[in-house]
Amino acid sequence: MNRLVRAEFYRIWHSGFFTRILILLFFVVLFFPLMTDFDFFSKTLAEVMDDLAMGVLISTMFLSVITSFFVSLGYMKKTAYYEVMAGSKNGHIIGSKLVTEGIFIGVLLFIAIIGFGVVTTIKNGTGGVENLGTRCLMLIFVCLRMTVVGTLMGMAIKNYAACLVAYARFLGMDIVLSSFLLPLLYMKEILGETVYQRLQHCMINTQIGTICGNAEVTTEAVLWCLVSFFVEVIAWYILVYVTMKKKWYK
Fold it and tell me: Are 101 and 8 in contact (CB under 8 A)?
């Protein structure tokens, strides 16, 4: 698997277009707070949380799409099939892409989002924001959810349609569910209050609101953030593994 991971890193850094887009997105997310607020460094963390939240929203719009595009590009150009022809295990192939396009890029995104927030906190304090460690834990799982699921989508679909699926899933599905469908079902008393709240905690936009809000972060919010991450990742992993096991290739 180490050989596959090294090959994936080589592919990322020598892909040209993908590397430039990834670097551009990193700096856009990093410097976005400064573009919207020139007094950013004179404020406390509590005062700049909304600016930092915009970095997460930008990532939600683009990162999963970019990741799924790069992964599916390998299948469209047939380069991803060399790993299969070399006799590599399916689990190792999936794992190598998750380590690189999934975890590595997700961690880069996390660093870009919190970068200037850390500087502001050191310089001016938190301004009353509590549970910083818990918020960071939730944020890293939100970032990884976008990149890991985007990677698995590219591997499962194996063509550019993965971009549309990723875009619809991360920008549309959560908004439709959390803002319209779930409240409607709750109003119609189809969903009980406990189920409604737990499902809302599973939505990424709700998680972003929790992370960047002023309210206390509850144990339930953290729990369902982690549960939703693992459930979605495992579901997509199984789908990818089945397609590879049954050799559903183009």
Answer: yes
Q: Would you state the structure tokens that stand for residue 176, as one six-digit string?
A: 């439709």
Tell me: the pLDDT tens digits for 208-217?
889 988 778 9
Token digits of residue 83: 């790993």
Closest by alpha carbon to 116, among 195, 35, 62, 174? Answer: 35
- Give the tens place of pLDDT for each residue, 56-97: 888 887 888 989 999 998 888 887 777 777 778 888 999 999
If one counts every other C-beta atom within 10 angstroms of the C-beta of residue 14, the result is 9
Cα distance between residue 159 and residue 121, in whole Å: 43
| DSSP, residue by residue, 132-195 | HHHHHHHHHHHHHHHHHHHHHHHHHH-STHHHHHHHIIIIIIHHHIIIIIHHHHHHTTSS-HHH
CA–CA gap between residue 4 and residue 212 (Å, rounded): 37
CA 48 to chain centre: 22
| Other C-beta atoms lying within 10 Å of the C-beta of residue 137 | 16
- Structure tokens given for 130: 């509590």
Whose tokens are 């991450």? That residue is 229
What is the pTM assigned to this prediction? Answer: 0.92
Sequence-ordered list of residues with C-beta below 8 angstroms from that of 128, at least 6 positions apart, any chain: 44, 46, 214
What lies within 8 Å, CB to CB, of 217 at 6+ separation is: 130, 131, 134, 135, 138, 210, 211
What does the alpha-carbon distance between residue 162 and residue 182 come to, in Å, rounded to a whole number? Answer: 26
- Whether 22 contacts 106, CB under 8 Å: no
